[in-house]
Amino acid sequence: MMKSLPSTISWQLNRISLRIRKRFFYRIDLGRLDRLYPISTLFGYDRGQPIDRHYIEGFLLQHKADIHGRVLEVGDNTYTKQFGSGLVEQSDILHVVDGNPSATIVADIARADNIPSASFDCIILTQTLQFVYDLPSAIKHLHRILKPGGVLLATIPGISQISRYDMDRWGEFWRFTTHSAQRLFENHFPKEMVEVEAYGNVLIAIALLHGLAVEELDPKHLEYRDLDYQVLITVRAVKLKTNN
């Protein structure tokens, strides 16, 4: 039977262990990251391609076949044109307030009663839901305005800085995980019709928060996924053809 060490010896060993751990931690050189202010506050736009946009565009490329018929996109129709190819018959742009000359529909997606039901074959909703306080109502309307068989392609932030521009105008309320996204969308879409994925790792999270760009990173680091560091979350949700 093993005997426990005397308390004085145990205390001394703990102190030695603590010194060793401290020395190890102190040897870490954070380099240019040892600072209180980010390298860039522009999400990487001033340095190249933003990291989250790399993942967003990869997701949309993967599901470009869904972007067809009548397509709704928020803010502008950049991705509709980029990934819709010749399959898009009508491109609509949603904006929350008047004043966007490109907008074909003005509505708050959480109170979008003015948008007819079953209108769209595809909805592209990138980096938008964090600005919507009433998420259940927003998902309800998104489901309602999709045609039966229609597809919602959404991206939402997991780890990200605040967008000060949007925060000051209409508010920024949420960050997500794969679990919260799955449960949120399953409230209106059948579980088997909701596909949720996460992208990122601790290095990518740090790089994104500092405003670094894709061009400054090793491609293999961008592709590595660690589900404990969810930088970007993607959702593909399909409305059942039997639903109204």
Task: Explain the layout of strands and helices.
Blueprint: H1 7-26, H2 51-62, E1 69-74, H3 78-83, E2 88-95, E3 105-106, E4 120-126, H4 135-145, E5 146-157, H5 164-169, H6 178-186, E6 194-199, H7 202-209, H8 219-223, E7 232-238
Parallel strand pairs: 1-2, 1-4, 2-3, 4-5
Antiparallel strand pairs: 5-7, 6-7
Supply the key terms.
8 helices; single chain; seven-stranded mixed beta sheet; Rossmann fold; 244 residues; alpha/beta
Describe what you observe in this structure.
The protein has 244 residues and is an alpha/beta fold. It contains eight helices and seven strands, in the order ααβαβββαβααβααβ. It is 32% helix and 20% strand. Strands 3-2-1-4-5-7-6 form a seven-stranded mixed beta sheet, with helices on both faces. The protein is elongated. The N and C termini lie far apart (71 Å). The mean pLDDT is 91.
Q: Examine the secondary-structure arrangement and name the CATH architecture.
A: 3-Layer(aba) Sandwich
Q: What is the general shape?
A: elongated
Poorly predicted runs are none
* Helicity range: 25-40%
What is the C-level CATH assignment? Alpha Beta
Oligomer: single chain
Mean pLDDT: 91
The biggest beta sheet, please?
7 strands, mixed
CATH superfamily, by name, is Vaccinia Virus protein VP39
The helix/strand series, from N terminus to C terminus, equals: HHEHEEEHEHHEHHE
Structural class based on helices, strands and sheet pairing? alpha/beta
- Strand order of the biggest β-sheet: 3-2-1-4-5-7-6
Instruction: Quote the beta fraction.
Output: 15-25%
Radius of gyration: 23 Å
CATH topology (level 3) name: Rossmann fold
